[in-house]
Amino acid sequence: MRQLLEWLNLFRKIQTTETNKISPVHVKNRGIPVPKIGFDCSGCEHCVESCPTQAISKTKDTLEIDYGKCLLCGICSSECPSNILENSGFHHVFSTDRDELKIEFSRDQLKSKSTSTLTDRIKEFQDLTKGSGFLFREVSCGGNNAVECELNASFNSVFDLEQEGIRCVASPKHADVLVFTGPISQGMQEPLGSAWEVMPDPKALVACGTEAISGGIFSQGKPPRTPDLYLVGDPPRPDSILQAFRYLMGRISFSFPDALDFWRKKNSFGSP
Ligand code: SF4
Ligand code: SF4
Fold it and tell me: Which pLDDT score, from 0 to 100, does residue 270 have?
C-alpha cells in the first residue's frame, strides 16, 4: 500500500509555492489599511483616535501611517465614516530601513520618510548568504507565539523555506541570523543580548512582526543593535517571511513604498 502511495505521488501536482509568482497581495488576507486614491478626507480623526498603536497621524492634506506600528487589526478602516481607508490585502511590508515603513499619503500620491539603502554591513552579509542561504536562531521576547506559528508554517511543504537554503538551528553559536519576536519584555532583554553576543560575524538581526519592530500595544525593550530587517505583521504571513528573507540575502530587489505605489495605481485603488 505504501509503495502504491509513493508511486501515486509521482503524478500529483507540485504544491510548493513558486517564489517568482508570489504576490504581495492576498485576496483572503486583511493586509494593511491603505487610503483610496483621490481621497477626500473630512478630517474627523476617527482613524487616529481608534488606532490602538497610534500608527496614524493626520495633517490638513495628508494622512501618515507608520506601518511599523500597524497590527493589521482593521479597526481604522471600520471606523472611517467616509470609507477612505480600506483593508488592502497587501502584506509584503518589510524593509532594511525603519523609516521606509512610514508612508505619507496625499490625495494622489504616496511618499516614504526614507529610501532604503544597503549598508556595508548588509552587503557583507549578502555576499556570504546570497548563494548558500543562512541558518537562524529565533528568540521569543515576550510575544504571544503567533509569529512563531507562522515561522513554523514557512517551513511546510507549501512555502518550503528550506528551498532557499534557510534552516533554523538550536544554538545562536551556529546561526548567521538572529530573528526576534515580541516587544522585548524586561526579562528577555538580557537573554536576547546574550544570544546576539555569542553569534559569529558577519551576522544579521531581524525584527520579525510588528511587536518586534515597535512594541505594538506594549512598551518596547531595547534590541542589541539596530535591526537589519524589519518585517511587519501581527503575525507576518509565511510568504512574507519567505520573500523578506530572500530580500535580506539579496536574491530579490524590493522597495515597500514603490511596490505599494505600483499596486495602488495599477488597481486604481478606490476608483469607482
Ligand atoms: S493598528 Fe489597526 S487601527 Fe492602527 S493603522 Fe493598523 S490596522 Fe489601522
Ligand atoms: S476616519 Fe476617514 S475621514 Fe476621518 S480622518 Fe480618518 S481617513 Fe479621514
Answer: 58
pLDDT of residue 141: 96
Residues 204 and 133 in one domain: yes
* 228 Cα–ligand 1 center, Å: 24
| CA 53 to ligand 1 center in whole angstroms | 7
Q: Which ligand is nearest to the CA of 63?
A: 2
> And the C-alpha cell for 134?
543562512
Same domain, yes or no: 108 and 151? no
For residues 78 and 192, membership in a common domain is answered with no
Q: Are residues 125 and 151 in the same domain?
A: yes
Alpha-carbon distances, residue 175 vs 19, 107, 121, 127, 160 (angstroms): 24, 45, 16, 16, 19
Rounded to two decimals, the pTM is 0.93
138 and 234 part of one domain: yes
CA-nearest residue, atom 3 of ligand 1: 51
Task: Give residue 269 CA to ligand 1 midpoint distance, Å.
Answer: 19
Owning domain of residue 50: 21-90+101-113+256-266
Q: Are the CB atoms for 184 and 222 separated by under 8 Å?
A: yes
Ligand 1: atom nearest CA of 85 is: 8
132 and 207, same domain (yes or no): yes
Give residues with Cβ within 8 angstroms of 38, minimum separation 6: 107, 108, 270, 271
pLDDT digits (tens, 9 = 90+) for 80-130: 998 999 999 999 999 999 999 999 999 888 999 887 778 899 999 999 999
Q: Give the residue whose CA is nearest to atom 4 of ligand 2.
A: 44
